[in-house]
């Protein structure tokens, strides 16, 4: 009896309790389950009674699966804020030490108004136990080597296993990649150095940036309509504009959010449903991609974190090519202004949208396929030397264009065209967690879902007069007349003009017919 009285009470972790509950759910008799796990019937009943609490804790990941008690922390709001921050950092595979967590806890405690909180080693140990966090002491050199090694291993493992399973049931036509990029759409060559490396988390430059979402398939046969995110919901330059070569949305930071990305996903899903297609969509794990809606026709596959530079096709040259084409068009506009008496005007959002879309549609199929091959997702086929020679020709022309503009606008000699193209590569494209957002119940200073007013960044731009359909038809005729005086104009150019002329004539004819019918009915 004495031994029975001194028997140490056994404690069960959350993981063990869930295994007991799952054993009962599998159809086993309660008595057999109790014997299997060495517990009394009353303990089993307690587990079953508290199952909702266990499931909620697992679902919210608010406690580690090995934790045996579910007591709340003394400073519960600090605990929740630090854990929310830790989850964001952990999702990016950033190495975090105990001292970093303690410093962050002190910062958040000060923001919450706790002057007497001490982020002691004891607090850190309890925090780790509550959330099942394992921290390892790694020196800086070993850390870099470890992360580099893990990256290579991750890429090889993904190529050898997961990607093969993902693409097994899909043809290259039905395998897509989507990714965002930031664009300083008003950037001029002489301002390249100031923009280089700017993350643009807000401030004045937020008015000069856009975020663009692009998506294309592995065969290069389908490039989806771009989604452009700006800062102003109703810019003056888009007044009376009902058709754009892309979708346009806005919020005050001009970046991608979960709501905008999910809206775009649902539209693509509906499109695939109408076409009776099923596709595989490969995306990275940026904050805007973390909580996806229920999709019927899209299977989403996540690229391994910290490996998108070598695994994401859009990052391997497709987006870069789009930016080369966009910046080239900007240079041509600058050169035209320099050789005329007109003042250099800033590019507005409407012009930027048109140029970004035109650059996107101009990216060649061969470029797209080559980048998918570089990512190792589709088989590599040797490109012909003729294609490489043809690709080098526009590069030479662009370099000449750059030298002309750079000389005229006094661009520093150390800045080259590639610097101009990549000046906005470091722009943040999606909402990242900041300290004011990890504190429960605390309102952030600014709401990221609200767009800027229509006046911001647009007041200095003159409103464009509305063009009538008659004026549009006349412009096409003038363009045709001008081209007829040029030498060596490709037939395709005249074909495109014919298509525009035909569309406008059909539209004006239908308008006249409808007005005549209305007049006739009114006289009856």
TrEMBL record:
It is found in: Nucleus. Residues 441-464 are annotated as: Disordered. Residues 3-54 form the HTH psq-type domain. It comes from the Eukaryota. InterPro entries: CenT-Element_Derived, DDE_SF_endonuclease_dom, Homeodomain-like_sf, HTH_CenpB_DNA-bd_dom, HTH_Psq. Residues 446-458 have a biased composition (Acidic residues). Gene3D superfamilies: Homeodomain-like (1.10.10.60). One of its GO terms (molecular function) is DNA binding. Keywords: DNA-binding, Nucleus. Residues 66-137 form the HTH CENPB-type domain. The keyword DNA-binding applies. One of its GO terms (cellular component) is nucleus. SMART domains: CENPB. Residues 30-50 bind DNA. This is Tigger transposable element derived 6.
